Amino acid sequence: MNLPLINRRSGNGKATSASPAAGGLVTLDDHDEQSRKAQWSADKWLIAGALLLGTNAAGIFGLPLFLFGLKKLRDATKAGLSVRPIMVTLIGYLVMVDAGLNLQGWILDLVGNHTLIYRVLYTAWGNVFDAGYFWHYNQLWIGGASAPGEKAWEVALVLVVFPMRIAAAIAFLQMKRWGYQWLIVTCWFGVVIWVGYTMNMTVFADVRYDGVVFPVIGWWIYDIMYITPFLAIPYLHTVNREIFSD
Amino acid sequence: MNERDRQRKRALIAFQIFIYGYLLLQFGLQLHMWATRDW
């Protein structure tokens, strides 16, 4: 977190409404107020972008909004305001988007599997990358993907990991200590998920890759982006935890 | 950074090498299966 150094770069005229050079007096309260405003102004764009990114289909429209929010935050940081560090912002939002995408996709496979749109979308996706979403689709008692083990992963992660991950990411973005601690927990959960899920893919590879258009490499290219929480682990373990308050 | 921090960092690096190695192994196994099976 930027320490509240008053008018640290007062010459650039950005985000400091009253500088001593202009005859104004900036108190610590003014600085806090300006920082809060700048943070919220950036967060509005970041939240809108992250929400769109998390919808999958509208993700492409979310990216420019998200990047604009990041730019606003960077400008505020350069102006010397006490705003959230860029790395905390990136990790918090990306972990949240990761959880949102997974949550939405798997909830729909759990409960929306007989809707026309998902019978089309999931089986089409399954046909191209992962026959776990094609082979005997909707033919078990629970519906949706019939790949061995898939439903167990869906239930465990949808009910436990992803909601926990979203809650932790929100608190992490608010720079709360519990958010930081729980983000570490949920990021390590990511390790468990990847170790277990990829093993499942390998064990049942004959089911999942047989007859698909783009076997193995297709699945890895599509899914490797969900490794984000993994990548955050070194940062989370080395960052100064004192920047997160109780 | 004290000795304990250094050890922790080293353990974290070692564990990451193991995890990414494991993922690469899975990818390699799947590629091998792709090459040898009639998918």
If you compute it from the alpha carbons, what radius of gyration of chain A comes out, rounded to the nearest whole angstrom? 22 Å
Mean pLDDT of chain A: 88
Tell me the major beta sheet of chain B. Answer: none
Gross morphology of chain B: rod-shaped
Account of the protein in words:
The complex is a heterodimer of chains A (246) and B (39). Chain A is mainly α. Chain A has helices spanning 28-53, 59-78, 86-111, 116-128, 150-173, 177-203, 205-208, 217-223, 228-231, 233-238. In chain A, helix 1 packs antiparallel against helix 2 and helix 1 (28-53) packs parallel to helix 3 (86-111). The longest helix of chain A has 27 residues, at 177-203. The two termini of chain A are 15 Å apart. Chain B contains one helix and no strands. Chain B has one helix at 3-36.
SSE layout and pairing:
The complex is a heterodimer of chains A (246) and B (39).
Chain A: H1 28-53, H2 59-78, H3 86-111, H4 116-128, H5 150-173, H6 177-203, H7 205-208, H8 217-223, H9 228-231, H10 233-238
Helix pairs in contact in A: 1-2, 1-3, 3-5, 5-6
Chain B: H1 3-36
Can you describe this structure in just a few lines?
By secondary structure, chain A is mainly α. Chain A has 10 helices and no strands.
